[in-house]
Every structure is written in structure tokens, then in C-alpha cells.
Amino acid sequence: MSDWHRLEEVTDELHGRGIVPVHVGGRDVCLVLHDGEIHAFDDACPHRRWPLHLGTLDGPVLQCRAHTWEWDVRTGELQRMRAPECLVLHEARERDGAVEIRIADDAPPARELSELWRARHGAAGRS
Ligand code: FES
């Protein structure tokens, strides 16, 4: 079982914005705070790998900014479509004022953000 990664610097931002990108365990992860629970999943959209942290939240439903696909962040399931393009979920919790994330042991290799995105927004692709 993988270790918990402790991220002390994102707690305030997550409580303020409700959605925050982080880089942890060698992958880009999107954090969402909903109903007092922290949800963590790979930040690259399963469709064309656009950053999910730029999407919009409506309750537990996150809509990707690029082509409006939607997922329930609690389950990772795609909404309104039948394609099995689920989010890659990770464990997340808040302990002693810090966010902690444990990358799923069965997570597939991390996907890079789309080449189009990186070309438009720089090599890091995180701005
Ligand atoms: S890249 Fe997210 S819906 Fe297409």
C-alpha cells in the first residue's frame, strides 16, 4: 500500500476555492472539497487530457472546460454518457490542518496533459 503524502500548503486554498491542482506522487492531481470531504483524482481529463482543475463544480459534479463532459467527484463516474471514462480516484483526507493524499495502488500510469494544452500554456502546462 502506498504512503500518504502530506500537503500542508494547500489546505487554505482548498477551503477557499474548493478545487486545487497539486503535483504529488509523480502525477498531477486535482483536489475537490465537497460537503466537507476531500476528493482526489488525476487532473488530466480522460477524454482529451485537458486539466480538470479548470472545470466548473456544481455540487459534486465537475464539468470539464474543454468539451463539457461531467463526472461525479465522489465516485469518479461519468455522467450523462455511457462511455466508461471514469476518473482515476485517489484517497484524500485532512489531518491536523494538512491535506493528505494516497495514490491508488491500482492507478494506471499518469497521463500527461494534452499536447495542445501544453503548447498553449507552457511546458509545465499548469498555469
Ligand atoms: S478534454 Fe475534457 S471533455 Fe474533452
From TrEMBL:
Pfam families: Rieske (PF00355)
rRNA-binding among keywords: no
InterPro entries per record: Rieske_2Fe-2S, Rieske_2Fe-2S_sf
UniProt superkingdom: Bacteria
Entry-linked SUPFAM superfamilies: ISP domain
Limits of the Rieske domain: 4-101
Entry GO MF terms: 2 iron, 2 sulfur cluster binding; metal ion binding; monooxygenase activity; oxidoreductase activity, acting on paired donors, with incorporation or reduction of molecular oxygen
Cofactor: [2Fe-2S] cluster
Keyword Metal-binding (UniProt): yes
Gene3D superfamilies, sorted: Rieske [2Fe-2S] iron-sulphur domain (2.102.10.10)
Keywords: 2Fe-2S, Iron, Iron-sulfur, Metal-binding
Family (UniProt): Belongs to the bacterial ring-hydroxylating dioxygenase ferredoxin component family.
PANTHER family found in the cross-reference section: FERREDOXIN-RELATED, RIESKE DOMAIN-CONTAINING PROTEIN
Protein name: (2Fe-2S)-binding protein
Taxonomic source organism: Paraconexibacter algicola
Lineage, opening ranks: Bacteria, Bacillati, Actinomycetota, Thermoleophilia, Solirubrobacterales
